[in-house]
Design a protein that fits this description.
Helix content is about 30%, strand content about 20%. It is built from five helices and eight strands, in the order ββββαββαβαβαα.
Length: about 160
């Protein structure tokens, strides 16, 4: 599946390791939150970059003390109409100030890309051959914002007040 980051398709150095799969001795790996909780010390001892995949029902608070160790957090969208991942992204970026890569995986639709980006996602796995073109169109469709978001773009209201002042 193409990986979009910074508006272009890139090679993905990360490999998801299932809960029952053997952990490779080397390489960038992503594990479930359940596996992270069970094998945390052994995973850290590997000395390679680590990531955790969060499912919709996983509580991001359980990772708070480990966020500085994690270079990647994947948020799974198993259904396109499950919006809990948006809240997870906002919490990670705004409340917990997570600065690593935040990746949306699963059933990601073109219409969601702009909103996912505004919530703090900076990488996306999407199942489209024209992924880069799709991304560029999706994030450039709107130029005015009524709500604040994790991307910290100016809202229409704040621009009005600045102009009036």
């Amino acid at each position: 599946m193409p990986l979009l980051k910074y508006g272009r398709v890139i090679d993905d150095p990360w490999h998801f390791v299932g809960d029952d799969d053997a952990v490779p001795a080397e390489g960038h790996i992503v594990v479930s939150l359940k596996r992270w909780a069970a094998d945390r010390e052994a995973l850290i001892a590997r000395g390679w970059p680590l990531g955790v995949r969060l499912e919709p029902a996983d509580l991001v608070e359980t990772l708070e003390s480990d966020l500085a160790r994690l270079e990647l957090i994947e948020v799974d969208f198993p259904k396109f109409n499950d919006g809990r991942g948006y809240s997870t992204a906002r919490l990670l970026r705004q409340r917990y100030r997570y600065e690593g890569e935040l990746r949306a995986v699963g059933r990601i639709l073109r219409d969601q890309l702009l909103y996912l980006h505004r919530c703090g996602f900076d990488a996306f796995e999407i199942a489209r051959e024209d992924a880069a073109e799709t991304w560029i169109k999706a994030v450039s469709e709107f130029g005015a914002w009524y709500q604040r978001a994790a991307d910290e773009r100016q809202t229409v209201n704040s621009l009005r007040h600045r102009r009036a002042g």
